[in-house]
Amino acid sequence: MNKWFKSGTPWIWMTGGAVSISLIMVIGLFILIGWRGLSFFWPATVYEFDMVDKQGNHMNVIGEIYDTEIVQKQQLIEAGITGLEDKGDTLERYLIKIGNREYVDLDFQWILETVITEKHIPDNIVVLERTKNGNFYGYIKAIQENGVALTLTQTELETELASRLSITQALKDKEHALLKGDIGRINFDLEKIRLKKRKLDLDGLLTTEKITDFENQSQLLRDEYLSLETQLFDYRKQALRDSVVITDMTGRDVVMPIATVLDFYLPNKMSFIEKVGHWFHQTGKFVSDDPREANTEGGVFPAIFGTVFMVMLMAVIVTPFGVVAAIYLHEYAPKNNLTKFIRIAVINLAGVPSIVYGVFGLGFFVYIVGGSIDQLLYPEALPSPTFGSPGVLWSALTLAILTLPVVIVSTEEGLSRIPSALREGSLALGATKSETLWRIIVPMASPAIMTGLILAVARAAGEVAPLMLVGVVKMAPTLPVDGNFPYLHLERKFMHLGFHIYDVGFQSPNVEAARPLVYATSFLLVTVIIGLNLAAIAIRNNLREKYRSLEH
Amino acid sequence: MHSDLSNRLRADKKRVIKDKLVKYSITSGGALVLVTLLLIFGYLLYVVLPIFAPVTIEVERQFTQVKQEKILALGLDEQNDISYQINDQGELSFYSLREHDLGELLLSQSILKNHSAFAQSAPSSNSYLFANEQGQVTLFKAEFTTSYPNDKRLITPKISYPLGKSLIELDAQGKAITAISFELSDESGAIAAVTSDNRGFYLLLTATEDMMTEDIVWEQELVELPSLPNNVSQMLLSPDLNNLFVRSQDDLLVYDVSDINNIRIKSALPINALNSHVTTMALLTGASSLMVANENGVISQWFEVLKDNKRTLTFIRDFSAQESVVSLVPEYFRKSFLTTDEQGMLSLFHATGETQLLHEKISENETLSVAFSPRANALLIIDGKQVKLFKLDNEHPEITWSSLWQEVWYEGYPEPKYLWQSTSASDDFEAKMSLVPISFGTIKAAFYAMLFAVPIAISGAIYTAYFMSPSIRSYVKPTVEIMEALPTVILGFLAGLWLAPLIENQLPGIILLLISLPLSILVTAMLWTTLPKKIRESIPEGIHPLILLPVLLLTGYLSMSFSDTLELWLFNGDTRMYLTNELGINFDQRNSLIVGIAMGFAVIPTIYTIAEDAIFSVPRSLTMGSLALGATPWQTLAKVVILTASPGIFSAVMMGTGRAVGETMIVLMATGNTPIMDWNIFEGMRSLSANIAVEMPESEVGSSHYRVLFLAAFVLFIFTFIFNTLAELVRQRLREKYSSL
Question: ipTM of this predicted complex?
Fold first, then answer.
């Protein structure tokens, strides 16, 4: 035994075990996020439980089984629960998602298996997604038009609900388009007129002529607004025509305007194929919809858009600087102390904690640079800041510094793989160094630059801490791109997938309800980032192969 | 032919210029990296430095006044536009300090001609009181009203009498009042006085609103103070109307006056400094601290400290003004105070910061009168006939090197402590900004993370670089490396919302894992050696991890499912309760263990990659030589490979630590973010980075808090700078060594 230990075999196994543990952790993490994230969109079976409480009263509960937990009988007995003597050592406890948030105290309830007398899966349970208060579970009882119930059979009810829902949806879409489109534009123009007027006032050029001119312009806009407003109210009124009557688990009939219903489905009736279809439908809605109810419901489209937009802006800023710095270090830098310092600077830029960049970005970019821009270019809007408050431009700039070393390191690696024979050949043929660079080196290094860029984008997409200081918000009213001139609004705040995870997971009032959404968002973010990294690795490997063949 | 050549030459010239241009622009582009780093360094420093800047004063405006009376009190409005002085003749006069009518008398009123005592309240209320020889008092207030005629600010002085213009009788016997003190707020007030025949009075005033007229009516309640000493030299009433300090020469009596029907002596004690006598005393803002000045220039601070369940007035610290202190003036809102002495020297101190901020000769005259401006950005000094307004630059008196890094005894605390408590709901709250607890939190988090990450990452690196077959290595290495790309916000979220409840519920299982995992590896190894040689040899070398995968998964599963049984058996069914009640260990759901695992997870790939590279690039000739000399693979590894690669491994650990120190999101999400100082693995912490993320958005630009947060960022910057530079230098040296081998 002692000899065996001395031979080192057990230690080799131990080091091997460390690799296994690492692998289990990585793969386990991906499986965990993937499973939890993706199963969120799967239409879960909705059960109806018949329960008996201590007094012998019957109770009905309708809901999805959200989580199952095994508890020791001993613990339950110690907690004061009686009537468990004839049960086994361990018992199951279910976390049930009941929904119907406005009618129950807790929309998630733990129920012990012993209180359940019966468990059915009724076919015609309907799940309603609503604009407010989360899901609603129950049975469709009737459909009302202007408060009068229509005479329909059970099967007709579903199709009728679907058709009326799509009519109402169309109305709401129109309303939304009006609100975001024309009305949004009018508000934007009115604000612009106000600022113009203030600017002229500040410059001392405001004449009565100009004032009347501005007045007329605003009056025109206000008139237009009034007519649009009547149309808006008209849409709203029409959308409120229909409502649906749902019987909930306590047998109460709840009348719900169809305008508050976003979608409905009958999960227990669905076939497997239908469930798959529904899964894709839900996933699609998740990536394309706006969030609702303090981000705990709905989609993450603005967060995706904000992340992508900010990262693209950052890529535009970081690429030229990173590439130039890498070319300098590899092609021009003499072997002196300055070069050594620059190399150490690159390493340190890569190692400085991201929050320090956030602090720097907030102090330097937002308050100093942004504040100066405001005073020079937007004095009319002061004291409310334009560029002098956190925004997407400052986030992109901050992350550009953060990712600069990534681009430099990767580009330099690419440059070092280009055989020097190519450079010498070009120079021997009479090309200047810059021509060699431009015609030979940079095109050949472009995949490496691409790799660096992808890695930088992946890093930037996952970074949250600095953004919390320089521009990200939990709910941005408008996207940084819209139909109002100048179309790109770099001073606006934006939403971000990573921050969305932090915010919904840790700052939301109903963490339990929001948790699956956080998993789904995490899965989305992980997929994007791992995908980008894999792409970068693939390009890099491809590049290595290419130059290996060139060398021989 | 000729023109062709010149054309070509011209073209060449253009090309050469272009080449030069490209060279310079690229060089400047390269230098930009260095500039960026220096800019970050410089900017952080630029924001931080003002907190360490010395305090300066300089004369801004001055004028000479005609009358020279003894000044009892003086003050300023918030904009430093108007000054007022109360002289010995019982007059209150307002003088302008504005540029255009400097020194002009704006308003003057005689309050009380013959007075026997004078008192002033806490500086922020600008209230004063005269008492006369007949046992009567009058209370008045210097007020400023601000209006904006023609969009310009105009401040007008006003004298008001909150208790009415007529004299209030304190002593029915009409004896002269010799010492008096009072406090007055909108709702309540009190006056304490001593008469010439040594009787003391305490008058409590309560404001009630008249239902009909909506006027404020003051209800009065008068009681006599029990057992007064002879020769009362000074009285001070705390603004919260709880304590009355009565000084008789060097002895202090503290009365508890919180209940008017039960006024009693709380404590009696001598308060003079060693071998000296008390000259004066004053209350610091916030009213907890009593500052006592002595003839030898020592100023001692006293406040009540809870000791053996009793609040006792305790000596806290002292300051030295070198010469006998004549007057002691506290600031309006901060814990600063200034003293003047017999030599005309002015000294400025900060009580909790324990520093002398300024010590400067202002005049030859010993009877200086000094007042702080309400915003503490100016001093008003009357020196004989000269009225001078000094500009005072004292933005951050509370932040000093020692208050940031040493224990500070804050008011109300039983002992000196390291505290981080930057904001609170109440107004007269004193921010406590010690960087020690949050630096400790950073180190604690990094320590537990490294405890988890280093063994796994380095063993993993050793195996991957040295034993693993190349084909498997080409899959395993990228898989572990991809972990590095994982956003830390996701790790933090999983740690906080998935791992923390899991560990809370399955704690015995997790502890069991620590033992069962290594054990199961050893058992597998042993079983493997007992397998017939034929089977062993048919399986390729270097796939131990694959064999271990199912074993470890199974062990993990079994450990977790035994957790509940173990909990019942060892910890009475509730580990958390057991830890808290039986072992006295606090347990937070989001604790250091969670952070250690999650952050360890984040730094494993950093350490793994660099260490693996270092081990892998150890020249083959070295290992071959060792093996050829008869060493076993393990001996070769331990004695040759790891030794050669040790600088690389060291640099890997350094890089990992650098990353762990700066990580924000994991610590933010996986701990409770309480700035406590305790190594307990089951409690949380607050790190520098998480602290910045939490507090930065709410801090006011330019405030002490803002600058201290920048200092925290600067500390992080320097910390990681040292770690990374060290690691990089080691790595570079190693690379040179290998290339020579």
Answer: 0.89
